[in-house]
Amino acid sequence: MQKIRNTVIAVMVIALSACATDDPNRRAKTGAVVGAIAGAVIGKQVSGGKKGALTGAVVGGLAGAATGNYMDEQQRAFEAELAEEQRRNDLEIQRLQDESLKIDVSSEVSFDFNSASLKPAFLPTLDKVASILSRYPKTTVTVIGHTDNIGSEAYNQALSERRARSVMNYLIDHGVAANRLDAVGRGETQPRATNATEAGRQLNRRVEILVRPITSD
């Protein structure tokens, strides 16, 4: 058992030492470390021996690295094809700690005031998003609507849900499998900034597209 612990520790030290902050493959390597640890534990439980633990570490590491690489590629695709939208500050693309991608879209460019109908000028951007999501099917997609605090809480909740569904339905209509998609509304409950100023309220009126890797395969 001590040898197994030493092996897992050695895998962690080697992999983490390669995960420099400026390393372009840092996320894949980090995924490999996490996968290796999980794989070692699972392998030990399944086989009841050292061989199972070591095999689990290797297999788990490959699975973790593959997930990181997959999301790296998808992120590069989003950043390349949505570069103009980012330059205009129409949207932001973030990579989260759990390997998910979050695309923050201002409602100023996606919806008219008090409306859940997509603006025609926003449709080419959604076309790009749908195309990339279709090319990377090993992800789930949650569309999350948010509002400022102008109006009643109940009204804002309903508006955020309608806007999220509008984006979700557009993605479905443009080739993204419906079973990968979900739409939820957060209303005014998760502001990014203060609602005391117009600038803050504008930041709070947004739609988020959360793209998560499917790791069960």
TrEMBL record:
It holds the Pfam family Gly-zipper_Omp. It is found in: Cell outer membrane. Residues 97-215 form the OmpA-like domain. PANTHER family: LIPOPROTEIN YIAD-RELATED, STATOR ELEMENT OF FLAGELLAR MOTOR COMPLEX. Residues 1-20 form the signal peptide. This is Outer membrane protein OmpA-like peptidoglycan-associated protein. Keywords: Cell outer membrane, Membrane, Signal. The keyword Repressor does not apply. Its main location: membrane. The keyword Signal applies. GO terms for cellular component: cell outer membrane.
